[in-house]
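Quick bug: ATP/GTP-binding protein output formatted oddly.
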Amino acid sequence: MPDTAFPSPVLIVLLGAAGSGKTHLATTWPAESVLELDTFRQLICNDVRDLDQDAIDEAVFMLGTVLESRLARRLTTVVDAAANSDPVMRAKLLELAGRYEVPAVVLILTTPLELCLERNARRPPHHRLPDDVVRAQYAEAVDAVAGLRAEGFAHVEALYGGGAAVA
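Here's what came back:
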């Protein structure tokens, strides 16, 4: 967890490619406060690697529904999703946080691309993504960094996600 103390409640958005350490970082919060997009994708289609856009859209919808319920109850929530590198996804998360007057912070995992790819390669087959997908996620995350404050995040912090052996 970062050294920064956040208010409660708060929406914490983890930003980084697959293999960057988002899920490892998410374990520093209570499990019930973490919404992981891969969990919702697995619930829908039994396979987190399923890149079918309908399955992804359904998983994002489910995550959003649970997030909205948590924010309405003023519960701190961590969103762990490689899709957070997509500006449309971040806009939806910020809109929900704003609706419930919960500040949103973004934690950027600055893990080098090569380490993300290494970690992805060590994942079990049902959790491994194609390298081109990891590269695209990485590029989107890097491109997003400069504009995060302007998007509406109350706090932006970069964390090095290379220290732990994440698989």
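Actually, after a second look the formatting is fine. Strands lie at 11-15, 34-36, 77-80, 104-109, 155-159. Closing.
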